[in-house]
């Protein structure tokens, strides 16, 4: 088999005009994903110098939904973009060192951009599918690589800016910046390629977000958990290994503030004043569903041990070794009237898979921090 050369690719569809436009849309997706990703990362920090707002309660649901939608839309766009620029891979490297160096730097930044983008989008998609076939921490890796990708993207934009500006302001059929060999008409028009790319991006984002739109949930092929009625179960009690401890008659919810402690049975909690709140579970993996939660206001429990307002609170689960087994609730969340230690969901006793005997539910908080099977509340 002969290795193709740049001249082997003759289609006018693989042009600067198409690359710049798809690149622009891709850039928008990346900026949305980066901004919302930073919010999500910050929301999961144990210490937040400036706590995120507790209202509106659906804000994290919105930003994380946008995050996954932008990432999903970027997949078809990236594939089209790679197809358009593919011939450039076969461009010869200039002989003279003075010319070869900038070329090498430019291609190096593109290699980093393409590889990190592919890793970000594939691991993100596998995460949405709740499949973690790797040994590293998804969150730390996704966060670190985002900066690598954005750095490479900025270099890429800076290098290409003159061509990009020309291509975006010019006509879509303009050939000024095309490779000299890209002169044959393709099977479709450039406009058709762009329409297809845009429609695929919107379609992919729709397949993911449909789960949160009433009536079309069945189409949410990319976030199948949100299709079920009621609140989905992210991890069952059995797989978390908590069934025995959660159903044991010796179960107590400990509330501790320094040396002041209380140990409450579930019946003690049921005997306290009950409140009901509609709050979403907004999973970092993309799905979100709102439930009617009933339970005891966390603030009422903190009052039992004389905890003042304005204190961060650590929530521990019966389950150990999980991202959710030990999380910190910033003071503004702990003191919020809607933050409940929930005993019921949608008018029924909380099921063991949703966190029986008692679980945390707070407004505007990533799902992974809505601790199930709570065993201990510590005022910090
Ligand atoms: N103890 C414990 N709490 C947990 C989890 C877990 O694995 N263990 N999963 C979290 C995640 S990732 C989400 S999205 C929500 C889902 O709550 P649900 O299963 O009741 O829908 O619970 C959170 N609380
Ligand atoms: Mo989650």
TrEMBL record:
CDD domains attached to this UniProt entry: SO_family_Moco (cd00321)
Keyword tRNA processing appears in the UniProt entry: no
Keyword Oxidoreductase in annotation: no
Transmembrane segments annotated in the record for this chain: 22-45, 65-90, 110-134, 140-159
Coiled-coil positions: none
Domain Oxidoreductase molybdopterin-binding intervals: 245-379
Keywords noted in UniProt: Membrane, Transmembrane, Transmembrane helix
Signal sequence extent: none
Protein name: Molybdopterin-binding protein
Species this protein is from: Nocardioides luteus
Lineage: Bacteria, Bacillati, Actinomycetota, Actinomycetes, Propionibacteriales
């Amino acid at each position: 088999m002969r290795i193709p050369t740049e001249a082997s690719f003759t289609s006018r569809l693989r042009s600067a005009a198409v690359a710049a436009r798809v690149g622009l849309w891709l850039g928008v997706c990346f900026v949305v994903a980066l901004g919302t990703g930073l919010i999500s990362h910050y929301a999961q920090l144990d210490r937040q110098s400036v706590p995120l707002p507790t209202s509106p309660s659906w804000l994290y649901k919105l930003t994380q939904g946008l995050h996954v939608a932008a990432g999903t839309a970027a997949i078809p766009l990236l594939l089209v973009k790679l197809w358009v620029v593919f011939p450039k891979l076969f461009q010869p490297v200039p002989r003279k060192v003075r010319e070869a160096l900038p070329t090498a730097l430019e291609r190096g930044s593109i290699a980093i951009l393409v590889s990190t983008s592919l890793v970000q989008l594939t691991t993100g998609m596998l995460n949405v599918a709740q499949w973690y076939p790797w040994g590293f921490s998804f969150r730390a890796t996704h966060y670190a690589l985002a900066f690598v990708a954005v750095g490479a993207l900025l270099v890429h934009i800076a290098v290409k800016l003159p061509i990009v500006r020309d291509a975006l302001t010019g006509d879509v059929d303009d050939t000024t910046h095309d490779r000299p060999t890209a002169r044959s008409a393709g099977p479709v028009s450039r406009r058709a390629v762009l329409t297809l790319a845009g429609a695929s991006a919107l379609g992919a984002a729709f397949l993911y977000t449909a789960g949160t739109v009433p009536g079309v949930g069945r189409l949410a092929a990319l976030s199948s958990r949100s299709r079920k009625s009621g609140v989905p179960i992210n991890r069952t009690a059995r797989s978390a290994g908590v069934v025995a401890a959660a159903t044991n008659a010796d179960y107590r919810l400990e509330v501790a503030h320094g040396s002041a402690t209380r140990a409450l049975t579930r019946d003690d909690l049921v005997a306290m004043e009950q409140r009901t709140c509609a709050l979403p579970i907004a999973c970092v993996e993309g799905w979100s569903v709102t439930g009617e939660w009933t339970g005891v206001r966390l603030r009422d429990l903190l009052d039992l041990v004389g905890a003042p307002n304005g204190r961060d609170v650590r929530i521990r689960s019966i389950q150990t070794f999980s991202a959710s087994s030990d999380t910190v609730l910033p003071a503004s969340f702990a003191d919020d009237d809607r933050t409940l230690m929930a005993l019921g969901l949608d008018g029924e006793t909380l099921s063991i898979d949703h966190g029986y005997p008692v679980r945390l539910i707070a407004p505007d908080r990533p799902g992974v921090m809505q601790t199930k099977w709570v065993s201990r509340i510590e005022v910090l």
